[in-house]
């Protein structure tokens, strides 16, 4: 039976993985890896190109350097992984979960996301370029401090309880992106966030971010003597 995760009006279908149905594997290499369990593992380098990961769980994977190109992930769960500095591009993720993972300084370019959950993850200093939410995406309790979001389509994403201090939004499409439940006062590029959904209580924080972006000067701060 499918498991559903919900944040307000956003519902995602999570992978349903039975431990007894998974086979332990010693590597994620190969064209297709199916019904697998991998990790814990500490790797100096992990290169994946054109790999298709289906119905699997990756636990406690740590890499010093990782490059993934043209991968397809379906019903895969990553938990407790350190993928900091990951260089990931041109890939499709469907029903994928990241829980308690580090992707600090990661470069994610041209990923297509559908039914994807990031929960309690660290994406500080990450660069997100041309990501597209073809289906619902939830980002819950994550840190994106000083991350850069460029030309992304986040129309089907919902963020909740996230640290967005000095997160930069540079262009993109955000109509319907749900930013309720987040402090927006420290975001940069706030004027890119057209048509997002927020609570009225967030208006002062968003106004503060816009004022900072526009370089507004407050008269009471001027020394007019």
Pick out its properties:
225 residues, mainly beta, 9-stranded parallel β-sheet, 7-stranded parallel β-sheet, 1 helix
Q: In short, what is this structure?
A:
The chain is mainly beta.
What does this structure look like?
The chain has 225 residues and is mainly beta. 5% of the residues lie in helices and 42% in strands. The protein is built from one helix and 18 strands. The protein has one helix at 203-214; strands spanning 3-7, 10-14, 23-24, 32-38, 41-49, 52-59, 61-69, 72-79, 87-89, 92-99, 107-109, 112-119, 127-129, 132-133, 137-140, 148-150, 157-160, 168-170. The strands form three sheets. Strands 3, 4, 6, 8, 10, 12, 14, 15 and 17 form a nine-stranded parallel beta sheet that branches. A seven-stranded parallel beta sheet has the order 5-7-9-11-13-16-18, with no helix packed on it. The radius of gyration is 19 Å and the shape is elongated.
């Amino acid at each position: 039976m499918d498991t559903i995760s919900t944040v307000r009006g956003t519902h995602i279908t999570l992978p349903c993985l039975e431990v007894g149905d998974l086979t332990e594997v010693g590597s994620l290499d190969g064209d297709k890896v199916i019904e697998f369990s991998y990790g814990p593992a500490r790797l100096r380098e992990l290169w994946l190109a054109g790999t298709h990961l289906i119905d699997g769980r990756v636990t406690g994977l740590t890499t010093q350097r990782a490059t993934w190109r043209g991968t397809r992930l379906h019903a895969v769960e990553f938990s407790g992984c350190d993928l900091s500095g990951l260089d990931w591009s041109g890939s499709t993720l469907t029903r994928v979960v990241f829980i308690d993972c580090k992707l600090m300084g990661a470069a994610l370019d041209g990923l297509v996301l559908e039914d994807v959950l990031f929960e309690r993850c660290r994406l500080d200093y990450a660069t997100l370029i041309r990501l597209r939410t073809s289906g619902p995406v939830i980002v819950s309790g994550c840190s994106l401090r000083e991350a850069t979001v460029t030309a992304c389509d986040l129309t089907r994403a919902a963020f909740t309880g996230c640290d967005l201090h000095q997160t930069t939004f540079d262009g993109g499409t955000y109509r319907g992106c749900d930013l309720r439940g987040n402090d927006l006062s420290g975001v940069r590029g706030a004027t890119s966030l057209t048509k997002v959904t927020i609570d009225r209580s967030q208006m002062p924080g968003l106004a503060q971010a816009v004022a900072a972006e526009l370089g507004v000067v407050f008269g009471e701060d001027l020394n007019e003597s």
